Fold these 4 entries.
Entry 1:
Amino acid sequence: MDYDLHDIVMMKKPHACGTNEWEIKRLGMEIRLECQGCGHQVMMLRNDFNKRLKKVLRKAD
């Protein structure tokens, strides 16, 4: 799946706050995501991210 910095993505499982939208804040070997509901930031390995990614909701401008 094609994604880039500042895209809004949907993961397979929602965050504890109930929101299922995340913004990509950092790309590399690890990916940093920020929850769009509560602002919590999570780092995960690219392989884990690719497994948990459901779809890209909005591309960055």
Note: The chain has a mean pLDDT of 94.
Entry 2:
Amino acid sequence: MENNIPIQKKLDENMKTIKEIFIDCDDVVYREFKVGVKQNFSLAIIFIDGLIDQDMVSDFALRPLLEASRYLEPNPITIKDNLYNLIKDGNISASEIKEVETIDEALEAILVGETALLIDGYKKIIILSSRGWEKRSIEEPQTETLIRGPRDGFTENLKTNTVLIRRRIKDPSLKIKMIQVGKRTRTDVAVLYVDDIVNEDLLNEVKKRLEDIEVDSVLDSAILEELIEDNYISPFPQTENTERPDSVSASLLEGRIALIVDNTPFVLILPATLGTLMQSSEDYYTRWTIASIARIIRYIAGFVAVLAPGLYIAITAFHPGLLPTRLAFYLASTRINVPFPAVVEAFSMELTIEFLREAGTRLSGPIGTTIGIVGGLIIGQAAVEAGIVSPLMIIIVAVTTVASFTLPSYEFAAGLRFYRFVIMICASLLGLYGIMLGLIFMGTHLVKLNSYGIPFTTPFSGIGMATGDLKDIIVRLPIIRLKYRPDFTFPKDKKRNK
């Protein structure tokens, strides 16, 4: 499509140009009609069937326009001016009316669900707000269920999602800036921030990265996340994603930024750190002592998810002498009939769990859950009875899998699963020394990782160690004690409680 196609005075020429661009687009609707006392003046509207609310266009635009135009003078010289003024003066009750001066601007409006009104003799096109496509109702998030807390979740509709945030933060300082990304999809992205809290350097960096995107399509927030993050090679996420409006609202009030992408219910929150990825919104809806215990359990679960299979391989194959005598004899007795070395045993069971996890994800809810539970029980029992793996290996794999599910962030848990296999390989080569080398490698990677200029390991190093951010990371202090916003975002207004 050409750029900056000018609007002609003659309606027929404009209609011809638009029809040539929309050739073979059968869902584009064209309606031409006559107005005026003698029905001697031409108008046309263009819209895409299914993207607009036709009742709105009919009742609040066409009907008032046709009724008011009956009384216009039939003079062909003045009727177009009178008709144009009739529309501008509010005889059309559309919620938003604007003018565009090029065909391209009109096409962009039509493609997002607006209605274009063309007037014969005028070199402008009037755009009427008429979006009204089908959308999913607000439901409880499927990936972040809580025992106590709000039950509403984001949908695929951007406007609905911004309203859910506005309902929670009734402050004019909450800003919503719209940006389009993707040359062909022209996906709307809403940048949300609290103006008197957010750090200007962080905000400018995020806007710059969004403006620098040059791709054909951005169909989901996951694609946008990969395009703007610091290190797309890393298995660890540098951006949070959530379906919960309360999580986004709380993050905005901490000085962070949210990106809402049209057509996806997952909202991005940035910057993200190791500490924020280990938090859950439910931590603030339960007693602070219980929430603190839950957080400590998550950190322990993270270490278990990474190290348990590797430790089994290292101790079984290289360092059995580290075990108490009775435990060493028991471990040896359970492996008498196992024909494979510990590393093959561990890898086979871990891969089986990954197969079950992937199968459960691809199948529908009840079926996927059944596959995971029944498949795990049957395969595990059969493997032990056949002597392929030891009972202790089954226990370790089960505990490791459960531990990974305790982490609030699915993407972060997936990154730990990746490093679990790295640690297993290191353990099979050098035993405990290999595990130490693997942990050093992972730790070095985490320390070097940044999230929009913020160290990923905050607050365990750098900024966080020099401030009070640790008060709300491993444990959660009572709300009344959390007087200051996290320092890692460098907020303008640091104090949140008196």
Note: The chain has a mean pLDDT of 86.
Entry 3:
Amino acid sequence: MASTSKKVLRMTFNNALGSAVSFTLPEPKVDLTAVQIEAVMDQMIAKNIFLTSGGALVSKRDIKIIDTTTDDLYEIPVA
């Protein structure tokens, strides 16, 4: 049985209505720091380049690096 792992960076913002808006990026750099990510998030807010159904992004809400391991427990038998 095979196992696969993947990491994603999830940046979550508040929009003008107070709703959460997340951007998920695959395979973040290993040496990425919270300070670097926060600086990018600040730029995304300041440049107002993303418009959501609840308006512009107005503040940072959360930053997570999510590491997921999937174990494939069944393989289709070869006839």
Note: The CA atoms of residues 58 and 78 lie 54 Å apart.
Entry 4:
Amino acid sequence: MYGLLYQLGISLRLHFRNRMALLYSYLFPTIFLVAFWVLYRHELVPLVRHMGELLTVTALGGACFGLPTTMVSERERGVWRRYRLAPIPTWSLVASTVAARYVLLILAGLLQVALALAIGMPLPRHPLDLWLAFTFVAFAFLGLGLVIAMLADNVPAVQALGQCIFLPMLIIGGVAVRLESLPAWAQHVSAFFPGRYAVEALQVSVTGDGLEGARFSLVALLLIGGAGCLAGAKMFRWEAEQRFATREGKGWVVVALAAWAAVGLLAESRGDIAMVRRAMLPDQPSSTASQPAVRAEPPAPVSVLTEPLSSDSASDLAALPTPSPPEALPETAASSDVEGAPAAPAPPVTAPPAATPEPAPTPAPSAPASWQEVTLKHIEDDFAFERLPPDGGVVTPIASLQEDPDPQLADELEGIRSALLSWNPGYVEDPVQRVRNLLFVAAVPDVVQVEPLERYVPLVVFEQLQERIPRSELMKLLYWVARHPSEGDDTAVDQLRFLGLAGPADTAMTRERVTVYALKLLGRLAGKIESQ
């Protein structure tokens, strides 16, 4: 034990002398924290929803780059030759190196949390669970870093191997890009990466209900880390060219990869992969906001209105009767080929048939002069609700009714709901502007991409609209807002700060999102869009 602790102290001293290791351990995660803070500066609570990603990047950088860089550089400089002469077993060297890196990761994680708290993030809900989750995450990534160190011949090889794992895990592994924003195939691929489980375990400790709901993630991290540490220890050689000297050395790489595959297949068998994807309407194709939802030409008229909104609906004109076509004329007899044969008598001259009158077209309903004159026929004829972006997409998302927000998000939504009760733009005299102002509340988080708040605020706005305005009037008002996107003023955007929401500078994009949200809510009220 004394030898292990002594070797641990040596490893820590050598680490703080390695500038490259310090760069990946402390500066690199700090840059990520600043970048996340700049990107999500409009959130009500800074960084609290992204600590899972930030701490995962911290562990990933320190374990997959810092650990193998240190080990390979020591091996290249001949430090391990001196260790080989010391009376310490090989396992003690490996264990002390991994333990030293764990201590460094804990320090880097504490630095990240301290910086986030200084910016304005509240304390994590479950500090002990956060430490336990970070320990599992560090163990998984340290095993991965140990395998990289045993595979790489030199430091440039460490960088190449590390990037091959680091970048895919950031993009499609659920670390830098949230799983909800990934396509379905990428979510299935992410099940084979440990980054997905690291983010989940850390985030539920910061804003969720603790590790009770992340047991599978802990098991996955433990399995991946154990396989990596075992493979790295078995492949350990004092010289780089000795690592594959035996056939067993190559086989341990397969063991490390098999753990990733086993975790992914187990996750697929549990059926948890699709749960993170926001539900899409089954009858809605994937589309973007650039596709217009306003019909370019009126559709066939609806013959029956099941729920008329107004008695002023235009009645269909009676179609004129269509006369039967005239009978075909008899065929003219062909001239005989026999010379001298009498010519066929000419047919009697008849007057040309009268032209068949075209039926009068059914006129399209005239555009309403005010929102009070809007009818259900206008709603059905003027908008193509099936062309709206899906609720589970990136643009104008709306959370499913079955999706319960985490406790931290629920508190923020309750704060917005309470603030709306005294928000002056929501009580202006003009009912159209009143609806438009409330839709600004839903549109702004979507424009600035405040995830996951942007998915739940539209539900709060929809709830407020239904409580304040009768259903029949609300449908007319939403129609009018969607049909006239450039009308009204934008002064309510500047008042969003009283709700804890920062207003974007691009009001044109905000108005575009207001139009789409107006159509989505109108489609729900008119029965054209099913609430999930």
Note: Residues 385-525 form one domain.
